[in-house]
Design a protein that fits this description.
The chain has one domain (47-240): Rossmann fold (3-Layer(aba) Sandwich). Helix content is 31%, strand content 25%. The protein has helices spanning 2-19, 35-38, 58-75, 114-125, 142-155, 232-240, and strands at 50-55, 81-86, 106-110, 130-136, 158-164, 176-183, 198-206, 212-219, 222-225. A hairpin with a 2-residue loop joins strand 8 and strand 9 (222-225). Helix 4 packs parallel to helix 5 (142-155). The longest helix is centred in the N-terminal third of the chain and has 18 residues, at 2-19.
């Protein structure tokens, strides 16, 4: 009796996921985030969805931007383009190649106010040819977040919203809510200069998933946990044979 009930519950969860924005695709998107990806339904990073990043200060905005850039390098593997929209460009473009991104493949748009940014982001997310759209805004209502989610469900593009110093954290229709902060880096082999970027990554909310906190580093195009010297991508390849 119990196995039958468990099967019914599992089937109901699979039926609910598409209604909440988790659409099944022919390609299972594996970013290489290891345990972080396993926190999501289907154990894969949600594409065709909108992700929200909460940033209480400018330092957090930079950390979130770096973490998003590391994910973009995976989403843009097919040489597709992305759009980054803000009122003031905070991204240091010459650093993008260190994340495996060709700067020519990102279109930067600077607009005056939040209303214009939201409009441009919605229109961009309707474009099927884009890998991702990133927008920097402080506030996001449930109504507009729902409009953004509906847009990506049609185009299969992925949206990232960086909320710089939001006044309040209202409920949104975003698939996941993140908070990323920087961690001190370490140099390797006594080499001078700054080491690989490190972050404390908090998955605050995720639909039908498991929130958690992880400390990771991005090195050589791969993610790895700070308590592990083995790249996560290598671990995934080893386990899958």
């Amino acid at each position: 009796m119990l196995p039958a009930k468990a099967n019914i519950i599992a089937q109901l969860q699979r039926d609910i996921l598409p209604l909440q924005g988790f659409k099944q695709t022919s390609e299972k998107m594996i970013i290489g985030l290891g345990a972080i990806e396993q926190a999501f339904p289907n154990n894969s990073f949600p594409i065709g969805a909108v992700h929200e990043f909460i940033c209480p200060d400018t330092e957090a905005v930079s950390a979130a931007g770096g973490f998003i850039a590391s994910i973009l390098s995976k989403l843009m593997r097919n040489d597709s383009a992305s759009i980054w929209i803000s009122s003031s460009q905070n991204i240091f473009v010459p650093a993008l190649p260190s994340f495996g991104i060709n700067p020519d493949k990102i279109i930067f748009i600077d607009l005056k106010n939040q209303k214009e940014i939201l409009w441009a982001m919605e229109e961009a997310l309707k474009c099927e040819g884009l890998a991702a759209v990133i927008g920097e805004i402080p506030e996001l209502s449930f109504t507009f977040s729902r409009r953004l989610q509906l847009a990506v469900e049609q185009s299969r593009s992925t949206g990232f919203i960086i909320r710089n110093n939001p006044r309040k954290l209202e409920t949104t229709a975003c698939i996941a809510r993140w908070k990323v902060s920087s961690l001190p880096s370490e140099s390797y082999n006594d080499m001078p200069g700054v080491g690989f970027p490190r972050w404390n990554v908090e998955l605050l909310k995720v639909r039908n998933g498991k929130p958690g906190t992880w400390q990771i580093e991005y090195a050589g195009g791969n993610f790895r946990y700070l308590n592990s010297i083995v790249p996560l991508q290598y671990e995934l390849e080893r386990k899958t044979g």
